[in-house]
Model the fold of this input.
Amino acid sequence: MHAPVSAARPNEPPVVISGDALLGAQAVGLPADAQSYPPPGQAWYCVVVLALAVMVNFLDRGILTLLVEPIKADLKLSDVQMSLVMGFAFTFFYAVFGLPVARLIDRRSRKLIFSTGIAIFSVMTMVTGLATSFWQLFVARMFLGVGETTSGPSAYSLLSDYFPPHRLPRAISVMQVGFVLGTGLSLILGAWVIGFVGTSPQFSLPLFGHLKGWQVVLMLVSIPGFIVAALMLTVREPARRGTQRQEAAPLSEVFRLIASNKWIYLPLFIGMGLRSAQMFGTQNWGPAFYGRTYGWAPSMIGYIGGLSIFVSMPLGLVLGNWLAEHYWKRGRADANVRVVVVSTLVSVPFGIAFPLMPSPWLAVGCFLVSSLASIMAAAPENAALQTVTPNRLRGQVTFLFLFIMNVVGMGLGPIIVGALSQYVFGEAGIRYAIALMGALMGIPALLIFWKGMPHYGAAVVAGGAEIR
Done:
C-alpha cells in the first residue's frame, strides 16, 4: 500500500502518497466527531432502498424501449416523434425544475424529497399508459421526469454522508444493482407480457375502459413505485458532513467552484454527456435495431436482452468497484477517474462494432462486452464527483452533472439516432445510425476523460476542490 501516485498538476512533480494516507486524505482538517459515520446497518439499509428506487425508475424506461414498435404502430408515430417521447420529453422537467430542487436538497430532508418524487413518478407512469395520441404521451412523459429530478441529487448526497470516500464506490455499485434489475427485468417482463397479450391485443379494465396491451404494461409497472416511496420514508436522514448552512449556497458559488477547478469538473461533465448520449441512443433503439436488422420478434429481443444485462452488468459493477478499490490501495489518487478511462477504452470499440455484426448472436456478444465495460464506470464516476465536491454544494453540483447526463445524453442521444435513421440511413439502416453515434460520441469522450485524470488526482490529494 505504498505505491506512488502519478496525479500531479501540470508542470509539477508527481505527488507521492501512501495508500493509508490516501484513505484519510478527505478527513484532513475535520474535527474528530466528524470522522464517525452512521452505523453500517443504517447505511446499507439506505443503499437497498435506493437500489429499489433505481430499479423502479429503469423498469419504466426499459419497458418503453421494448414497446417502441407497438406504440409507433398504434399512435402512428415516426422515429423522430418516438425519440422525443423517449428522450427529450422525459428530460424536460429535469431541465426546468432540476436546479431549484437541487438547492432544496442541499438544505432540506433528502429522504422526504426523494419519496415525494418517486410517488409523483409512479402516478405519471400510470397516466402515460392512458395516452392515445403523440401529445398526450409527450406531456405525460414530460411530467414523469420529476422522479429523475429528485432521485439523483438526493441519493448521491445521502450516500456521501453515510460512507467514507474509499467505500463510496462500493455503496454506489450496490445501488446501481437497481439499474441492472430494472433494465433487465423490464426487458424480460416486457417480453413475457408482449407474448401474453399477443392473442389479446385489447383489454377492458374497470374505470379505464378499453386499453391496448402496451398501455396495460405501463400501468402495471407504476405500482411498485408507490411501495418504494413508502419505504424511503423509513430511511434515517444522516447528519450532513462539513460546513453547514441554513440556506443553500448561491448558484454563483457553484459556478465559481467549477470555474476554479475547470480541469476537474469539465472533463467529467463533458465526457459523461458524450458517453450517455451514446448509451441512451443505443439503449432506446436497441430493440428496434434487432427487429429491423435481424427480424427478431419483440419477445425474443426482451428475453435475450434481459438475460444479457443480468450477465454483463453485475460483473461490470463488481469489476469497476474492485478496480477502483485496487487503485486506491495502490495509492492512486486518480483511482475513480482511472476506472472511467479504462471503462471507456474497452466499451466504445465494442459499442461501435455490435450493430455492424453479420449475425444477431455476434451482435449480442459484442453488446454484452460493451455493456460490461460501460457499467464499470457508473459507481466510480459518481463517487469521483462526490469525493472532490464540498458538502454544501453537492446537491447542486450533482444536479449539473445529471443535467448533462439526462438533458444532453438522454435528451439528444435517442433523437440523434432516430434522425439518422429517418433522414440519412432509412429505418432499415438503423444499424449504421447506432454505429456512427458510437464513433462520434465515444472516441472524444475517451480523450476528454484521459485529459482530466491527472487534475482530478491532484485535487483528491489536496483534500478536494476549492474556490479560488
